[in-house]
Design a protein that fits this description.
The structure is a single chain. With 87 residues, the protein is an all-beta fold. The chain has one domain. Strands 1-7-2-5 form a four-stranded antiparallel β-sheet, with no helix packed on it. Strands 4-3-6 form a three-stranded antiparallel β-sheet, with no helix packed on it. The relative contact order is 0.34.
């Protein structure tokens, strides 16, 4: 199947090229900077942002968070079913 986006620069507004399951980990980052996160089961998220700041916040079920994230921390994260939008 042809990819209609193959010759275009990928804008931050989408579409993402992939949706990657995330395992929260205090030592290992994503290996890329996600342009957004999708959370199936709400709770608290503790993340390292694209700016290198550690932030914690509460999200509801089926949330889409349009924030650049390099790492989802295990400590402090109670949300589940986390996926990263990858460009």
């Amino acid at each position: 199947m042809d990819n209609p986006f193959s010759s275009r620069a990928m804008p931050l507004g989408g579409p993402a090229r992939d949706l990657v399951p995330v395992n929260a980990d205090d030592a290992v980052g994503l290996g890329f900077t996600a342009v957004a996160l999708y959370v199936e089961t709400g709770g608290t998220l503790s993340v390292v942002t694209a700016a290198g700041e550690t932030r914690s916040f509460t999200v509801g079920d089926f949330a889409i968070l349009p924030v650049g994230v390099r790492q989802v921390m295990a400590t402090g994260t109670t949300a589940a079913g986390i996926h990263a939008f990858r460009v």
